[in-house]
Amino acid sequence: MTAISGATLNFTFDKSMFSDPAMRPHLEAYYNETYDALRENIAARKEAQANGEFPETIKTKDGKTASPAHLLDLEKAIPRFDKWLDMQQNGASPFDFAKHAETGLMLSRVNDGQQNDFYNQQMENLNNFHAAMVEIMEEAQNAEGVQPDQEIAAASENLSAKDATSSPHLSFNEIATKYNVRNISPQEVDKLVKELQDNNLLSSKDALMLMTHGEDFLSHMPGEFYSQARLSEKIDLLDLSEYQRKITSGPKEQWDRQIALLKRLDEAAG
Fold it and tell me: What is the phi/psi pair of residue 209, to 5°?
């Protein structure tokens, strides 16, 4: 299991979270965010139908005529929260889909582009789920009066490689010179995050995002894709992050923050 902790949160990011009573309100918030757009769409269509403004037929992409989905069917497609939670616990969670995708990738005997795309999409979904849960829990704790460490947040978001020398132990520059983000292993990523946090140079939000590339997080991913050998394999983390930002279909703000941090580290390292 991967324990996620920081200035404002502490939770375990794996499938056990769906049966953790303490996670229920946060998961319900995620569930509501997921289905709110569909509920709003159904409400708008009901109003349009009542006003005689909704078409009885629609044109598909291939030019054919079809009847739009019945509103009752759309409403039935939204599971109740308890049903959704049960589905996540019994095989329909992002962790399960990631494991299935990894199994398919490992069993493929050829370079199957479609299988690779499916795997990349499931990894993206898992990372997006992680980012969403972090944001939801931070909002919940802020609403309860638990404020994040503003000095740490400011250090991560506003610190430049040029003037980052205010740490009482190690400066941003000193830490940056110990790591090469263009040639770094997951094991080294965890060490980098720890040093930045120990010296109050990284916000919890940025730490959590960066930790998804670390050994502790990857070693607990579904399946066996991240072997010990792969966890010590060096990658260009800045290049990888820019690529993942490019292909993601979700919000890009988290990737922008991570890329900005990695660029500062790269510049400081010289």
Answer: -65, -45
Q: What is the pLDDT of residues 104-162, one digit of tens each?
A: 655 554 455 566 677 777 777 787 788 788 888 878 777 765 444 444 444 444 544 44
Q: Which amino acid is at 52?
A: G
Q: What is the spatial distance between Cα 30 and Cα 139, in angstroms, rounded to a whole number?
A: 12
> What ranges do the domains of the chain cover?
15-79, 127-270
pLDDT digits (tens, 9 = 90+) for 70-95: 555 667 778 899 998 998 888 778 88
